[in-house]
Amino acid sequence: MNQEDFTSDRDAITDYRSDRPQAPSATATQPQTEVTLAYQVAMPTPANHLFEVTLCVSGWQQAVLDLKMPVWTPGSYLVREYARHVQDFTATAEGQASPRSWRKLSKNHWQIDTAGCRTITVRYRVYANELTVRTNHLDQTHGYFNGAALFFYVAGYQRQPYQIAIAPPANWHVSTALAALADATNTFVAENFDILVDSPFEIGNHFIYDFEAAGKPHQLAIWGTGNVNPSSIVADMQKIIQVESDLFGGLPYDRYLFLLHLATNGYGGLEHRNSCSLIYHRFGFRVRDKYERFMQLVAHEFFHLWNIKRLRPDALETFDYEQENYTPSLWFSEGTTSYYDLLIPLRAGIYPVGSYLNSLSRELSRYLTTPGRKVQPLSESSFDAWIKLYRQDANSPNNQISYYLKGEMVTLMLDLLIRDRHANQRSFDDVLRLLWEEYGKPEIGFTPAQLEKAIESVAGIDLSDFFERYLHSTEELPLNEYLLRFGLQLQPEGSDLPFTGMTLKVEHGRHLVKFVEIDSPAQQAGIDASDEIIAINGWRATPEQWGDRLREVQPGDVIQVSYFHQDELRQSPLLLGEPRPAHYHIVPVAEPTTQQAENFLGWLGVPLHELI
Fold this sequence. Notes:
about 600 residues, 3 domains, seven-stranded mixed sheet, PDZ_sf
């Protein structure tokens, strides 16, 4: 999943038997009886945002039926408590007029009394009014849902097939990567609950575009309106698919579905086994850099069909839907994917090397201006994703670093290290191919040690010191050292304003503090996030005037800052610091050596002198 939000299925029932399904959930056991599980999802009144769900369990022979709803969805590592949207739960048995008694045993666990019942029908409704790639959304224009956020699983029967019938409003159609039953309208089959969770549905009047890429059928489904040009998107998707297919040696599916939601706000994606969900600004396609950012999102989520959906850490080999699933290896699953989501469009010819280096410069700037990189190790960032990454607060930049971002930087260093040692005859591409053959194709989860061993085998060097320093400690990454081997260097772009340590934003005409860097002049002055800045040295400092006021003073000066703290007017002295770099740019060295030029050409495919 893309960090900023940045998040499947089978095409025919017979195909499931020849392609190993998604990892079974932790409590799954082989059922002892012939039980059939069939869902129906209806939406008779879309304006009320309620999906009406019916589960029919047939062939039941036990005294109780335990139903559990996932608390999270794979690809988005946060306990989201999907059960909070469930309402109007009832259970009946075939041939019995009275409802069956039931009870809740925990936040996501319903238990129904079923003694003497062979067929039980469960009905409930799910409120769906959150438009993201990991939740559900239903209104007059469409219905979209993720399996984890809509469906219960029958405890102990997660490996059973699930049938899903959709009852849409008139003239709505259904898009999903699940296999359709030939003899039933809008009815689909998932081989097990994991496949069901991994199969989002789009239901409505969305536009559908069929195309072929790398010899296999694909489909783009677009909901919403904006300035999107489907033909351009499809053409560039075809290029991305081909490049990634070539990298891994072919496509591991029979067909693939891209679901794209166009919204006023929102950005992100969620990967699935044979599909992905994307959300992007409806008017974000005509400005070139925004369009390129969208194609990077596509490259990221598509890359995940190998890296995480099939090639995954052993801790995610078996899903436990009731609690956190911890791994220190998301730096590879997400960070390496983030490194390649910039490279893939370059290799596909979607943008030139200058655009690639500009995008990489933005990522490097984000990393080097995040104080938390000096506090949280990369492996800990991955392990603590459940409590930190998706729960940002005013202090988050001070005490954490994204495993997407630092993982991308570490992968960059490893790729350059391998290329430099082997004259571009080896690269991190070879690491991916090795891991794919050993763990991805057979879908055997890898351990952190196995991941490191695979990288070392391609690099041809002991990297234990590298991993200790850059995965498990907070030592600064020597990025410039690695870039110099390829004729590049980091050029800081300093601000002309004295350093205060405050990040400010304008909200309803008020000049509010969004973030205060640890140990900065602002923090030492007692200024806090959410304070409202109103004056410097007794002079009003509106958002428009802020920069001008700071240009009138010098580093080392002490200014008096007037501000409201929880509606209390305060004034504090603030010692201004030296200006800090706000951005970093990757630029060529003035006189590259022959070796640097050869390294650069082998890495990015164009002569270095074209950038000078």
